[in-house]
Amino acid sequence: MTQFVCDSNRIAGVNFSIHPKRDDFVEIITGALEKVDTSKVWIETDDVSTLVRGRIPHIFDVTKAIYLHAANTGAHVAFEATYSVGCPGDTSGEVYMAEDDIVLNKEKVDDISQQAATKFALYPLGGGDYMDQIYAQIEAMKDRGVEVSPTHYATRLDGEATKIFNGLEQVFIDMEESGSSHTVMTVSMSANSPSTKK
Amino acid sequence: MTQFVCDSNRIAGVNFSIHPKRDDFVEIITGALEKVDTSKVWIETDDVSTLVRGRIPHIFDVTKAIYLHAANTGAHVAFEATYSVGCPGDTSGEVYMAEDDIVLNKEKVDDISQQAATKFALYPLGGGDYMDQIYAQIEAMKDRGVEVSPTHYATRLDGEATKIFNGLEQVFIDMEESGSSHTVMTVSMSANSPSTKK
After folding, report:
1. In the structure, how many helices (H) and strands (E) does chain A have?
2. Is B7 among the domain residues?
3. Which chain B residues touch A19 with a CB distance below 8 Å?
4. A6: in domain
5. Do B150 and A15 touch (CB under 8 A)?
6. What's the ipTM?
7. For residue B88, what is the nearest residue in chain A, using CA coordinates?
8. Is B164 marked as a binding-site residue?
9. pTM score, two decimals?
10. Number of cross-chain residue pairs from A and B with Cβ atoms under 8 Å apart
11. In this protein, which residues make up the domain named Thiamin/hydroxymethyl pyrimidine-binding YkoF putative (chains A, B) (predicted)?
């Protein structure tokens, strides 16, 4: 078997799903995808999830835009994602590493105001003082315009979805710049939930 | 701020969500929860996810049962979970570590036949030969009656949901027995999807 567990050198990627809790979930997902410019990333969807690979700014730009377009329908939409960078493995999408840093969807989505509740967890693999790295990134989130609170196995973020995505992207960039050899981050985000926050 | 990122010594836990893609998602979720005996675990739900903490057999028994009861409605249901054990931190649910190994939901759900497509990823934190540990667990899954195939950032499992959950529980037990200090496993499972497998 090809050992295809993670990504090639420094290409970043995300394995994610959008879950609209509505009968017309297909229309919401395809409608959101049609509004997003994915020309600077490698993208593939199957029956479980969607994979996006490329440079860090573009994988966050694309996932943020898909989520905001889906949530902007007013549906209760959950976003579940695992972002990853730095593990040796496959090479699909390597060509997209030549793209520049100009993101393609920011202008179209940054004016969408959408409150979101998020839980994120950071997993610096490959050893070292990984708990210290996690705590430092949680502290840094407090300066990014979102409400930060503790929960089990994760950190909770509440606020504007655009600010939350921008903050999570910065966590990822900081981990790369700190020299972490392999970083994984999970994100669960919910918009328009009928449940009230506890 | 309380640094509440992960679990206390050897208590296991899971942070998960069930996402039925239907207008009646609330009824599907609450209906599934009502059918599950959660008396041997600590459980708490908020607007983003549900937390279950306790001994390994019970956290898998409870999540498997909730998923199978929800999927058994025929709805397209996604299950997104992060299982975790071994990180220093909070203590909620410690009292449940005194429970025995007799699982409470197995008899009621093991006769539910439900095909599921799953992607799982294993993150042994705290260093060591973590890629070797991951590859060994992927190999071991092949003997557990499910179809195993590679995908980006994860390993795909196809087959009966009961066998998939039992296999994932065994991965977790094996990691504990191997002495891994802190193990995290993410699981994305989909049932009754209108999309065909690629």
Report:
1. 5, 8
2. no
3. 19, 21, 78, 80
4. no
5. no
6. 0.90
7. A131
8. no
9. 0.92
10. 186
11. 11-90, 116-195
- Least confident range of A32-41, A80-89, A134-143, B10-19: A80-89
Residue B113's identity, in one-letter code, is S
Query: Are the beta carbons of B87 and A131 separated by less than 8 Å?
Result: yes
β pairing state of B147-151 and B12-20:
unpaired
Q: In CATH, what number is assigned to the domain containing residue B53?
A: 3.30.70.930
| Token pair listed for A198 | 């506890």
Reported as a single tens digit per residue, the pLDDT across B85-107 is 986 655 677 888 889 989 999 99
Give the pLDDT mean for A37-50: 94
Asked if residue A106 belongs to a domain, the reply is no
Contact criterion met (CB < 8 Å) for B127 and A128: yes
Who contacts A80 (Cβ-Cβ below 8 Å, separation ≥6)?
A16, A17, A19, A187, A188, A189, B17, B19, B78, B80, B188
Cβ pair A84:B197 closer than 8 A: no
Contact A151 B51 (CB under 8 A): yes
In a domain, A105, yes or no: no
pLDDT at A198 over 70: no
Range of A151's domain?
A: 12-91+111-193
Selected residue of A19, A122, A139, A189 to mutate for chain B interface (largest B Cβ count, 10 A): A19
Q: Which two tokens stand for residue A16?
A: 């994610």
